[in-house]
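From the methods appendix. Each design record in this collection lists the tokenized structure first, followed by the designed amino acid sequence. Records were kept in a plain field format so they could be parsed without special tools. The example shown here is representative of the layout used throughout.

RECORD:
FOLD TOKENS (321 positions):
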């Protein structure tokens, strides 16, 4: 099932539609007037504040926002280009390893596009191959069209997009889905932005075999792996958001944990940090639960101790048989 992912909880996307998309005609003549009118600066500031690292990604997003703001000022002075070429193509490709923030940034991107009036609704519909491609003849076109209908007015986020194309099987239905996507990406690009996401090397191979797709992607944004220090900062941010904190020495243990975890299969950057903290919270709860008669202070209830992480299998690998 396609999962419509609306806004990030707590973000101001739930606020009433901003003036920019509601008012078709604007008198703004300065960049700051457009920023004030569209409230887009809030989203950009939030992105800067909430997301650790990702400097090149943030720069690209600021560039795209600048393009859209200038486009608005041009439109306000009646400087639209010839009919048919009236909106820049904004389909994007986000490449990077798991847990590097691609989905998170796609949600923010959708908010920016919405606030600047590029798309009507600004929601994100996140899908994979199985949501688009059918198992039997005749099933693919209706499936793909249904997904496109849901995504219209927002962003269609296709995770691991290269699975749409299976070169080993020349009758694969994925090709049919790609063709429908290509058409809509061209003809309805004023109301739908498609973001393809996945590993860089596989995406490159996919584009080599699908030049039509490659030529419709205007922005390629690469998400680097996080450095150790960034992962720790992400951990602190996640904990603070859940109203927990590190006790004495816990942050150092998390650093050790991450260094070890990285050597193991399926390391997933920020996602692995989140998983580690979730499990540490479980152990903290069991630790406190075992002490049935003790009065628990706010400090007890919010503090993760080194032992809550040290019990992980990463530190205690099971004996090899
Ligand atoms: N730069 C960051 N700062 C703070 N938190 C982050 C950052 N990047 C990712 N996260 C958090 O890490 C988790 C994983 O991020 P996200 O789902 O966006 O990654 P992804 O690249 O889409 O991963 P996948 O490829 O596994 O789908 C989320 O909980 C997100 O909030
Ligand atoms: Mg994701």
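DESIGN:
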């Amino acid at each position: 099932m396609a999962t419509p992912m609306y806004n990030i909880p707590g973000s101001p996307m739930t606020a009433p539609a901003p003036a920019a998309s509601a008012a078709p005609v604007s008198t703004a003549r300065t960049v700051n007037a457009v920023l004030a009118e569209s409230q887009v600066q809030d989203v950009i500031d939030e992105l800067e504040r909430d997301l650790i690292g990702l400097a090149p990604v943030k720069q690209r997003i600021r560039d795209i926002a600048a393009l859209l703001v200038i486009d608005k000022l041009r439109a306000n002075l009646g400087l639209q280009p010839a009919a048919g070429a009236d909106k820049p193509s904004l389909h994007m490709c986000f490449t990077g390893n798991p847990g590097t923030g691609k989905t998170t940034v796609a949600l923010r991107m959708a908010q920016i596009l919405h606030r600047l009036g590029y798309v009507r609704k600004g929601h994100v519909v996140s899908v994979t191959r199985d949501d688009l491609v059918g198992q039997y003849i005749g099933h693919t076109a209706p499936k793909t069209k249904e997904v496109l209908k849901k995504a219209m007015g927002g962003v269609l986020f296709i995770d691991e997009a290269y699975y749409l194309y299976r070169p080993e099987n020349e009758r694969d239905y994925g090709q049919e889905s790609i063709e429908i996507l290509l058409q809509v990406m061209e003809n309805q690009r004023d109301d739908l932005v498609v973001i393809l996401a996945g590993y860089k090397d596989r995406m490159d191979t996919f584009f080599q075999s699908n030049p039509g797709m490659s030529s419709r992607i205007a922005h390629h944004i690469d998400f680097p792996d996080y450095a150790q220090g960034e992962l720790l900062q992400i951990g602190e941010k996640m904990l603070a958001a859940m109203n927990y904190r590190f006790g004495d020495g816990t942050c150092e243990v998390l650093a050790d944990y991450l260094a070890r975890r990285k050597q193991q299969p399926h390391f997933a950057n920020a996602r692995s940090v989140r998983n580690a903290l979730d499990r540490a919270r479980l152990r903290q709860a069991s630790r406190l639960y075992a002490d049935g008669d003790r009065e628990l202070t706010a400090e007890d209830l919010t503090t993760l101790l080194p032992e809550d992480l040290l019990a992980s299998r990463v530190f205690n690998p099971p004996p090899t048989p």
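APPENDIX NOTE: Residues 6-23 have pLDDT under 50 and may be disordered.
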